[in-house]
Design goal:
Elements (H helix, E strand, L loop, with lengths): L7 H18 L3 H15 L4 E6 L7 E9 L6 H4 L2 E3 L2 H12 L4 E4 H10 L1 H4 L8 E7 L7 E7 L8 H48 L1 E7 L4 E4 L1 H6 L11 H6 L3 H17 L2 E9 L5 E12 L5 E10 L1 H19 L5 H15 L4 E7 L5 E7 L1 H6 L7 E3 L8 H4 L4 E3 L21 E8 L2 E9 L7 H74 L8 H31 L8 E4 H11 L1 H6 L3 E5 L5 E4 L1 H17 L5 E6 L5 E8 L6 H7 L8 H8 L5 H11 L3 E7 L3 E9 L15
Parallel strand pairs: 19-21
Antiparallel strand pairs: 1-2, 1-6, 2-3, 4-5, 5-6, 7-8, 7-11, 9-10, 10-11, 12-13, 12-17, 13-14, 15-16, 16-17, 18-20, 21-22, 22-24, 23-24
Helix pairs in contact: 1-2, 1-7, 11-12, 11-15, 12-15, 15-16, 16-22, 17-19, 19-22
Length: about 750
Amino acid sequence: MDTHNYTDEDFYNRGMNAILDVLNRIEGLDQLIEQFAETALSVFACDRVFLLSPVDVEAEVFTIPVEAAKPQYLGASRAGINVPVTPEQRTLFKHLLKSDGVVLLDRAQLEPVHNETPAFKNSTIELPKSAILTALYPRIGKPWAVGLHQCTHERAWSEIEQKLFTDVALRLSETLSNRLLLRHLQDREETLKASAERLRMSQEITHAGTWDMTIATREMVWSDELFRLLGHTPGEVAPHYETFMKCIHPDDLERVLATIDAAAQDGGAYDMEHRLACSDETARTVRQTGRTYVDKDGKPYRLISVVQDITDQMQNESRLRMLLDLNKDAPSLSENEILARALDVGVAVTNSKIGYLHLVNEDQRTLKLSTWNEAARRLCSAAYDNHYPVDQAGVWADAVRFKRPVVHNDYPGLEEKKGYPEGHFPVTRHMGVPVMDSEKVRLIIGVGNKDADYTEHDLLQLQAVADDIQKIVMRRRADLALESQTQELQRAIKAAQSADRAKSEFLANMSHELRTPLNSIIGFSQLMELKTFGELSDKYGEYVHLITTSGQHLLETINQILDLSKIEAGKLELDREPTYINAIVAECIGILDALAIDNHVKVTNDLKDAHVLMVDPVRFKQVMFNIIGNAIKFTRDGKVRVFNDCDDQEHRILVSDTGVGMTPEQTEIALKPFQQAHGNAYARRAGGTGLGLSLTNKIMELHGGRMEIASQVDKGTVVRLILPADLEPAPDMMPDPTA
């Protein structure tokens, strides 16, 4: 609008009318301020019009919610809506809030704002040369501001322009108050609606309704979910106190009335469980939690209660409790008893009257009737066969055919059913579920004749029972199988132990019986070798020598068998005494010297210090003789070394050789009695019975020690004989080395 073409009065009237038209015509806040800015830009013929919010010296940022400007002088649309509040702008805000009218700014006054505001400083927004601003005071929220910018030249705002700007600001402030208040009320209404919807949804999910009662009048307000809990649609009945009490189960009514009346009279809170006798003839269990509110005089005036349906929770707890008891009792029950108990659980948790349980045979074409519940057996006089073909069964066997649960809430009205045999009890409702395993139905459990329709929760309850039945039965079968296997194993162990004892006794007896004549044979052959009874020919002398050596070898074998048998029978006892280990080793090496010479083996005794240990000298000599003898026997043109490595924990005697060595598998074989690590052919060349290492190992164990073997093929073997340190005798037990 060009102010030079009109008188001051015309300018004012035309400008005010244009602004009022916008303020009175447009309802929406966002559309209103946008249209106001565009109209003001035309009325005042300036370069930029803007609104600013909030005018708050404590704020970190302010917002330009709307702006109208000539294209070359766009401001907030380039810089962004939110602008940081600088110290200079805080000063300007204080000036605006203290001023009763308009604030006029020239270029010099605008320079500090230009220098500190990033948008102006970076030339994002063209700094005006003149500006006029005034504060707006809506009745809700912080103050706003409206301003005009002149960017093309320094402008002196006339008195009529300032008056129009002031009056327009007053009208805008009033309209802004109304629109902001309306938006606030709309927002609150939306918030309340959203809150109410969330409450409704939460009550629907948790099956919890509420009632709010004015105690003096007994007037009530019910939530929608409470109507549904009581078996009504919302608004179907008037929410009276008496109406609510009529829905309480008769057996619980007196207790509920007394609890609520006490809270209404004396104040306080309550928490109780009781049943509802709902209009659909089903009994639901609820938990009711109430609280009384008092007025300023402490007198109860209002009572609010939350009523939550806990029927499903109670059924879950009941099912788990009964199945837990069944699981505890299962080891003492037969499989049929387990199935019967489990069926009773399924009938109970679904509020049914009858129930059956069928096992499905592997062919999936026949059923084996396992059990009916007591009520079904009592009601039914019809003959039945334990094995029933699926293709002859009625709709109750659909759980097997379709491999899924089936529910028939109108069983009499089903057209595809095959009818009852004579003497069968009538069925009004039916539900059956299968237990699947590897795509096959293993069993089905069915219930029937609940007073009300079967629900999804009933189906979940019965399926949970069926699945648990399968687990309990399978676990019971596994326990029985394990028990049978354990008994069989125990019998086998006893038989093996008995056979082992018999073998040991046989070997001991046979060894004793063989040794007596063998000693005589060896004795007489030795006398013949000594020519005690006269000369022998060379041929007979050779034969006598063979008899002697063979007899001695056989006697050694028999002695080893006898020793091994005694150890296995637990009859070999050690005769311990302080013993010089060095002396035993030296004696064994001396005895084996001839064998070492024959095999071209150098034997070195590197034992350090004389060991005196509490051992059986005869048995320990047997150990050392076997180990050193084996080392020499399986070494050709090599070395055998005996040495020790002792500390505070153990005595270790080591025998190493450079012989043929063994693989790990051969080492394991060598420790078994009557086994030859290198095969029988090699054993025949080297000599031996295959008992030496096994016997040595057992003698070491009798002494509380152990034997360890480390061996490599073609590199040799190291045998470690390890004894505990506590085998050293007390000083007063040490033998006299000079004796």
